[in-house]
Structure formats: structure tokens, C-alpha cells
Amino acid sequence: MFIVNQNEISVHELERHKQGFESMDHFRQPEGKRYAVCLADPLDVISLVQYLREHNGSVLLIHGETPMETAYQMAVKARCYGLVYQETKHFMSITDKQQSEKPSLYQYSSGTTGDAKLIGRSWDDIQTEIHAYNQLFQGEEALTPIVLASVTHSYGLICGVLAALERGSKPSIVTHKNPKFALQVIQDTPQHIVYGLPVFYHILSSFTREQVRFHRLMTSGAPMPEGLFLKLQGMSDILMQQYGCSEAGCVSMSKQMRSHTDLGVPLSHVTMTTGEKEDQPDEIKIWNGQNEIATQDLGFWTGEGHIQFVSRMDDVINVSGLKVFPLEVEDVILKMNGTKEVVVYRGRHPVMGEIVKAQVITEGGTTPEQIREWCQDRLPGYKVPFDIQCVTSIPKTATGKISRRLVEMETISK
Question: Tens digits of per-residue pLDDT, 296-321?
Fold first, then answer.
């Protein structure tokens, strides 16, 4: 069925788990009820999601390490029937009111552009996504997904686990925090496809000096830095990237990344539009049935029919009427020896208006002046960061994403 930290979970064990829910008062008659689920054990998460889905219940997924008070507030805000916290028997009732909408999977958006929003997608829509997703894996059932991404997020749960189970694959879920453990699982599974995030791959590729060879790596969430892409390209048979949003799920995939910003081709259940040329990027929009979803991401079509990511629209910095895309500046900085991680973001000057700022994690004593000189030789003047800070860490969201908006707001508040 699936594996959790090298422990085999059989079909019988999964079904026994699901039958156990029927004897718990809070899971009887779940139809029309919305449950907030904050669990750390993947077996608990997957079995409860399947049980509630089969009984027309709704689920709000909350990361398993969320503090109880925060999880409860999220459940109240989402008007849930109750919160399941850490153990399936531990239930906190909130309201008896039933919901009238279609049974759905709910998540809060990452909040990288502001306050997190509650977004629901019906189980029917998710099944449509899974069908379209698996069309791209036809004939590749022998691939074993190794899921490093959390199964309390749609990337890990839907694409890493549920889609794999439906096409007859046996996903292997790794929650062990020691990178050595994940590397051992990967090395013991020759025909693997790893579901991870750029930050995981940065750790895995930096962790050991041993010769490591990956078969397939899938990334999602945010484009990885170009330097990391080039490094992984030399360590992997195939690099893949999928793209989507909370409102639509996965909508495109590159089965062989041509660059770190390659978002691939649309899945069969959606149509997508964006800019026609590299020098004329436009917002990436998704048509999912009758609904139009504006992603606020800028992109363009390549000659090969792939979508290339350029920037978040609200990340674009307007320097005296000239546009600066932070990703381009970050790529230049990361090519300099002595730089490990960077975020480029918008700053505000009382006279100049918007300016380019950067926080950089360095090594070997690299200074802001050296970074500025490096940029001046490789970028137009208006793209060179006006302010560069060498820092020991860069703030990230709970899902490991860098939020330029949060960095910008933090620096304003100081």
C-alpha cells in the first residue's frame, strides 16, 4: 500500500485504521461536517482523509507541528465542526452546524502575499486533477515516489500519495528529520521520483560529499535558485517541476526541466495563458472549467510550448519606472563564490521611491561591497541592490518558502 519511514503499511492495516474511526463518536455521521485535522503521523492523516472523503465529509489540513492554540484558532476561523489534534481520539468540538457546500479539501494559502486565505476544492475537482496528473505518468508505474514533502499539504498528499496510489505505485513517505535517513531511502530505491522542495534538495545535496546519484527529482512551490538547479542537474538523471496554486492544485508539469524557471506544459484538465514573448511577460491565468484563476505570477511561453516563470507580480520592483525582477538579481548574486542564499526584495527610499534591497547569507568573509561590485559588472545600474545586508538566516514560511513580502514588512517595521 505505502511505506512510512521504511515501515510497510498494508491494505489491511489501512482499512483497520479506517474502521476504527467508525467507533469514535466524533467521526460517526461525518456527512456535511468540516473537520480540522492537525496530525503528524502520515498513517493517521492518510487514513482519516480517505475515511472522511468516502463518507462525504470535508477536511481542513493543518501542518502537524502547529501549536494547539494556533490550530484551534485556524479551525474556528474556518467554521469547522471540530479539531482533531495530534491523535485521532483527541477531538475538540467547535460547532454542530453542518456545511451545505460540496464535501471538500480545505487549506490555508501560504500567505506569501498577505494574510493566509481559506481555500476549498471539492473532492470531485481533486479527482479530476489526479486523473489529469496521472496521464503524464502512464507506463511509469514502476517509479516509486519518495515523499519528503508534508502529507498535510496538497503537493505531498495529492501528487505524492493519492495520485501514486491510484496508478498502482507504492509511495514511500519520509518524515525522519535526519537527512542521512532520507538519503539512505533514496539510495535503496533505484527507480525513484522524489517529491521535495528546493530547501530539502539544498540540504540533501550539501549534506554529504559522497557520490550521490538521483534518478528523478520533482520540485514545486517556488523556483529553485539557478545555482542549485545546475548542481542537481549534474547529480540527477531527470529534474522535474510542477506548478499550481491553492485554488486549482497542480496545473502544469515539466518532465525534463530546461531551466530552473521551466513550469512545463498544462495538464489536460485546464487551459492556461501568459505572455507570448520573453520581453513581454504577462500574468499566468488558468481556466478550470468555467472558472478563471488569476495567479499573480508573471510568465511567458517558450518556442517549445513550455511556460517560463518570471516573477510574482507584486514582487516586481519599480525603480523610477524601470522593472526589476528579483529572481534575475538573485541568480546573479548566487553565481558569486562566497554566497549561499539570497533574497532580493523591495525597499522604499524617501526621495528615490522604490529601491532594490538584498539579504545574503555568505561564507568566507564576503562583504556587501564585494557583492555590489560583482553585481555592477553584470547588471544594469538600476538592478544593482541599493542596500545589501549579510545575514546569518533568511525568514521563511512554515512550508519553507521565502516570502519577499514578509521580509519587506519586517525591514519596514525595524
Answer: 999 999 999 999 999 889 889 999 88
C-alpha cell at 346: 523591495
* Amino acid code (one letter) for 240: M
Residue 392, CA atoms < 13 Å, CB-side half-sphere: 0
> Which cell goes with 275?
505572455
First to last CA, the chain: 51
Residue 131 grid cell: 486523473
Nearest to 257 by CA among 296, 311, 283, 220: 220
Classify strands 172-173 and 192-195 as parallel, antiparallel or unpaired: unpaired
What radius of gyration, in Å, describes the C-alpha atoms of the chain?
22
Q: Model-level pTM? A: 0.85
Q: How many residues does the chain have?
A: 414
DSSP code of residue 282 = E
Angstrom distance (rounded) from CA 103 to CA 235: 42
- Paired with 300 in beta bridges are 275, 308
Q: Which of 212, 312, 295, 217 is nearest to 250 (CA)?
A: 295
What is the number of other CB atoms lying within 10 angstroms of the CB of residue 261? 23
Q: State the DSSP string of 168-208.
A: T---EE---S-HHHHHHHHHT-SSEEEE--HHHHHHHHHH-
